[in-house]
Amino acid sequence: MCLVIAQQAPRRAVVVLVLLGALAALVAPAALAHEATPTGVQRIELDLGARELALTITAPPGGGGRLPVVVLPRGDAPPGEVQLAAVRPGGVPADPVAVPVAPVGQPREVALSADAPGAWEVTVADGTTVARVPITVAVPASTPGWVWAVRVGALLGVVALVAALTPSARQRPRVAIGLGAVALVGLTVAGTAVATAPSSAPTTPTAAPAPVTAPPAGGHAGHGGGAPTAPTPMPMTSGSVVATASTATPASPGAPVDLVLDLTDSSTGARVDDLAIHDDALVHLAVIGPDRQLAHVHPVRTAPGRYVVRLTPGAAGRYGVFAEMERAGDGGHQVARTAFEVPGPSVPAAPAPGPGPREAAGMQVDVAVPEAVAGRPTSVVATFGQGGRQVTDLQGWLGMAGHLMVLGPGLGGTPDPVDPASAFGHVHDMGAPGPAGTHGPRVSFEHTFPRAGRYQLWVQVQRGWQVVTVPVTVDVTPAAAPAP
Known about the structure:
Layout: H1 2-35, E1 41-48, E2 51-58, E3 65-74, E4 81-87, E5 97-100, E6 108-114, E7 118-125, E8 130-137, H2 145-164, H3 167-170, H4 173-195, E9 241-247, E10 257-265, E11 275-276, E12 284-288, E13 294-297, E14 300-303, E15 306-311, E16 317-327, E17 332-342, E18 356-360, E19 363-368, E20 377-386, E21 389-390, E22 402-407, E23 424-429, E24 442-448, E25 453-463, E26 466-476
Antiparallel strand pairs: 1-2, 2-3, 3-6, 4-5, 4-7, 7-8, 9-10, 10-15, 11-16, 12-13, 12-16, 14-15, 16-17, 18-19, 19-20, 20-21, 20-24, 22-23, 22-25, 25-26
Helix pairs in contact: 1-2, 2-4
C-alpha cells in the first residue's frame, strides 16, 4: 500500500505542476495586457524665435507620471537655453526646467511630470515666446470582463482539480467527482473566455479635452508676462480653416519679424484648436515672397488657434502664406491661404534656373524633369554630389527623404504666391533610408501638374542638420488634344 501511494505521489505532483503551468499561461498574458498600457510617442518640429527645435515627447502611461522630453536643436541654433514645463492648458509654468540648445544635432533629455490624466501642454519658452504643445495623458485602462473570466475560471479549475486528486478526496468518490465537475466548469469558462476574447487589445480610453483658452484681447499671446485668461469652452467643428496673417511689429526687408497666424473655423468663427500632429508638426507653413524665396517653417502654438514664427523678409511686397494642417476627427487635411505685406517698393523676381545642374550649399545638384505635361504624372529627380562623389549622407526631415514645394501659374502666366489661381502643392519622397540611416544621392518625386504654364519648384533636403533648398523653374506643356 505504501508503495502504491509512493508511486502515485510523483504523478500527482506532475499533474499539479502541469495545471499550475496552464494557469500561468492563461493568466499571465491577461495580467500583462492590463498592466502595460500603451505609451504614445510624438515628435514635433518647432521654429521658436531664432531656434529650430525637434521635440520627442513620450506620454506617461495611463494615469500620469514621468514625462520624458528630448530636445534636438537643428539649423543655426544660437547658444543659450530654453525652459520646459508641463502644465494644464493655459497654465503658467511653476518650476520650468532649463535645457541647453547647443551644439546643433546633440539631443538633450529632460523629465517633466504630468501627474494626472487629461489634457496637458508642454511649454517651451525662449524668454520671449512661449510655445504650447498639446498632449493627452490617458485614463488607466480597466480590466475587461473576459480577463476576469480567465483568471477566476482558471484559478477555480486548478484549485478544484488539485483538491480532487488529494488522498482524502479519492477515498470519497462523490466528493472527488464533484470537485472534478467544478474543475471542468472552471477550466471550460477560462478556455471559452480566451477563445472568444477580442482579437486585438481594446483602445485605451482617453480623457475628454479640457476647456481651451482664448488669447488675451489686444495682446500677442505667448509673448511676455501676464496671467492666462480664464478657460472658456469653445466648440470644435470640421469646417474649413480660415487663416489670417499679421506681423507683431512693422515688417521691413532684412529685419526679423514675428509672423502671427490666427486660425478660425469658417462655419462658426471659433478659433481652431483641434489640430493633430501630422508629419511631425501641427502646422506646415510655406511663406513665399515676391522674390520667390521659400521659407518652409513650423510655427509654434502660443494659444488656442494662434501660431507664431519668426521670419526675415528678403524683399518688400506681398507674401503668400500657405498653412497645411490636419484637423482631428473628420476635418481631414486642409491648406489655408493668406498673405501679408512688407512695405516698400517691390522688384520683380527673376525666374530660377530650369532643370539641369547647379550648386547648392556646396553640393552639385542635377535636377531632371522629363516630359512635364499637364494632367499626367511627372517625375522630378534631384541627384546630389560633392567633389566628384555621390552624396549619401542626406538626413531625413519630417520623416521623409525630401520635400517638393510647387507653385503654379497665376492669371499672369507666371507663379504668383498671392494669386488664388496659382495652385500650391507639397510632395514627399518616401524612400527608405540606407544602411546608415541616411538618404541620397537621389531624391525623387511624382507630381501631376494640373494645367499648362510656368511653375516654380523648390526641392528640399536636410544635410548636417541644415535644410537645403533648390529652386527650379519648370515649363509644363499642355496635353495633346485627343484624336477625333
